[in-house]
Amino acid sequence: MTLHHRALNTLASTRLQRRTVLATMAAGLASGTGLLAHAQADWPTRPVKLISPYAAGGASDLSARVLGEYLAKVLGQQFVVENKPGAGTRLGTEFVARAPADGYTVLYVAAPYATAEALYGKGLSYQREQLRPIAMAMHAPLFLIVNAQTQIKGVRDLVAFAKTRPGGINIGTPGAGSQPHLAGELLLREAGIEGINVHMKGDSVAYSELLGGRLDATLTAISTALPHIAAGKLRVLGVASEKRSALYPAAPTIREQGFQGVVASGWYGFMVPAATPGDVVAKLQATILRALDDSTIKQKLLDMGLEASGAPGAKFATYIDDQTRKWTGVIRDANIKID
Question: What are the pLDDT digits (tens) for 27-42?
Answer without folding.
Answer: 444 444 444 344 456 8
